[in-house]
Amino acid sequence: MLKRLLPFVLFVCLSCHLAAQVQPIVIETDHTALVLTVGGNQRLLQSYLGRKLVAGAYPGGGREAYLTAGMDNQFEPALRMVHNDGNASLELKYVSHSVVKNGDVSETSVLLKDPVYPVEVTLHYAAFGASDVIKSWAVIQHREKRPVMMTQYASSLLHFNADAYWLTQFHGDWAREVNIVEEPLTNGIKTIESKLGTRTNFYQTQAFLLSLNGKSTETAGELIAGTLAWTGNFQYTFEVDQRNGLRMRSGINPFASEYYAAPGEIFTTPAFIFTWTDQGKGQASRNLHRWARSYGVLDGKERRLTLLNNWEATHTSFDEHRLVELFDEGKKLGVDLFLLDDGWFGNSFPRNDDKAGLGDWQEDKKKLPSGLGYLVKEAAAKGIQFGIWLEPEMVNPKSDLYRQHPDWILKLPNREEHYGRNQLVLDLVNPQVQDFVFNIVNDMMTKNPGIAFIKWDCNRSMTNAYSPYLKEKQSHLYIDYTRGLYKVMERIRIKYPHLPIMLCAGGGGRTDYGALKYFTEFWPSDNTDGLERVFIQWGYSYFFPSNTISAHVTSMGKQQSLKFRTDVAMMGKLGYDIRVNNFTPVELAFSREAVKTYQRISDVVWQGDLYRLVSPYDEPRAVLMYVSGDRKRAILYNYLLQTRRKDIFGRVKLEGLDPQKKYRLREINLLPDTKSAQPDNDKVLTGEYLMQVGLNLAPGRITPLSSNIFELTEE
Ligand code: GLA
Fold this sequence. Notes:
Layout: H1 2-21, E1 25-28, E2 32-38, E3 44-51, E4 63-64, E5 79-82, E6 93-102, E7 105-113, E8 119-128, E9 133-142, E10 148-161, E11 165-171, E12 179-184, E13 188-193, E14 204-212, E15 222-228, E16 234-240, E17 245-252, E18 259-261, E19 267-268, E20 272-277, H2 280-296, E21 307-309, H3 311-314, H4 320-333, E22 337-340, H5 371-382, E23 385-390, E24 394-395, H6 400-404, E25 424-425, H7 431-447, E26 451-456, H8 477-495, E27 501-503, H9 513-516, E28 521-522, H10 530-540, E29 550-554, H11 562-569, E30 573-577, H12 585-607, E31 609-614, E32 621-627, E33 633-640, E34 662-668, E35 684-686, H13 687-692, E36 706-714
Parallel strand pairs: 21-22, 21-30, 22-23, 23-26, 26-27, 27-28, 29-30
Antiparallel strand pairs: 1-2, 2-3, 3-4, 5-10, 6-7, 7-8, 8-9, 9-19, 9-20, 10-17, 10-18, 11-12, 11-14, 13-16, 14-15, 15-20, 16-17, 24-25, 31-32, 32-33, 33-36, 34-35, 34-36
Helix pairs in contact: 4-5, 7-8, 10-11
This protein binds alpha-D-galactopyranose.
């Protein structure tokens, strides 16, 4: 017995000795510090999270940084593990830490061990200096003889001690994504989560704002903005205790996901990405955008392609002649690419609606007798690039794939199949299915290297949640599915590192930074009505930069003018999904010019700093602007929503400009032969004036659902 305990005793003494010397572990960005210290019992404590202090004298003490279950903690744990002997307790004591710096990023790793069981956890914190973002995740490993079972394995736990907490969540449904609700947290636990597996953000966007002490505004107040980089079930819990302390936990949703970790297996949680600021919600968004463009989104600093999509114009009814005509329409508009949507594949079961064909990724010989190669060539000959829609993770029962590989499909062996949009989910846990999905892309790209864009769709959530491949390890399904998806994306990205791919899941069902590292943009909603899109794009703007938010001009929302719908799409990543041949000459002239204008201003829209000036949740209008990094240019958007003709609006003070600089204000994107009604149009005004006095953006008669775009250029 003594022999068995000896190494453990030595280990404890060693860590006691070390603990006495451990200096606070300060994880810093340009303006933020997260400070960890080692307590008398060698446990790791979170001692501070807030503004970086110049003198660096941070408080000590605090609450345990990564709470475990089964010891003295009686609140929600970050980690709960059941050992081989059935004991469900875990204690994590500080062992060592290290910091690795790489340019603007410094990564701190803190190693913790249980003194009784051979379990170690390394907490990782990557701090991104200029963007004030911290990414935190945990790596869990053990050396017990048999697998241990984990019922909770959080990415991160953060503690707060504020007078009050205001949580902003973003919930929705198909075609009504990201509705903003802000409410105070009360004692107990508030959970935001998804159990949907695939298309995981169908009802809840995977991100939140947490304001401390009181509500924060766009320009003032202390808050964190957080989001989990995981394309599967996620969970955030906000637990307010008896003393008004808050524990905020984030990670994979452990629902139906007891995880059996094998000895030596490295279990890496997804990263929780957050920014802290005391400058309000606007600053939090700008921090995340800056981080995302450099680190979070594939090719976040590169150009995006404007495009014409055929979904809303044709649905699945087209043939190759019609498509070639549509290339001409795209060309007329002046966009970079034509995107062929759903309906181009399937022969035994042609994809003429959503009831058949998914899984059979061969060109429909009736619709496309000359094949994709012909389309790519024709597009090139007409001077437009060609992109294509795929939904590689899914299968319709009416398909060859379903008949050939029933064992590749998630379904309960002894129950009836349950469908969503007439389809089932493939078992991406199975390496053969991963190969199949990789090869859908790889074969297509090998045969048609000219394909310049993919829209990757995923139109149903995961029911029938049973993997034939996992057999008795079903509780790994939700986690291993997402890992399977990432394995496929890794392989695609090794071979096709820069191919633009849009992330789509029946509208905004997948919007997270776990996926966006492989994707260049996402489809926020199938709702493309301009008025609705003002709200939807506004919601996503809290977390995602505009070059990731695809926004198409369509004929949905006919009560709005084409100008209004175009102005709305121009605040995101512009595309079209409309019958261009139905345009009047004026509409065509306007749209051609709009595409050119967008291409000219898009560097500011995509890479600039966003300032949300008037929220559509506060007034029947929305005003926002993007300012270039050097503050020499800005683009200002003004949308009057469901206003009454006699509504009176106050002046809008601009933000983010240089008060010393002089700017010329010019209304752009006007309809042909119309003049700006803005009294300050074409005037040169100082940044100070624009920010202190502001502009009257609703002069004269008010037209509901009208809009303006202004360009400000330094003189
Ligand atoms: C989903 C997408 C749409 C379109 C259809 C095609 O609903 O969100 O944009 O691609 O699928 O079936």
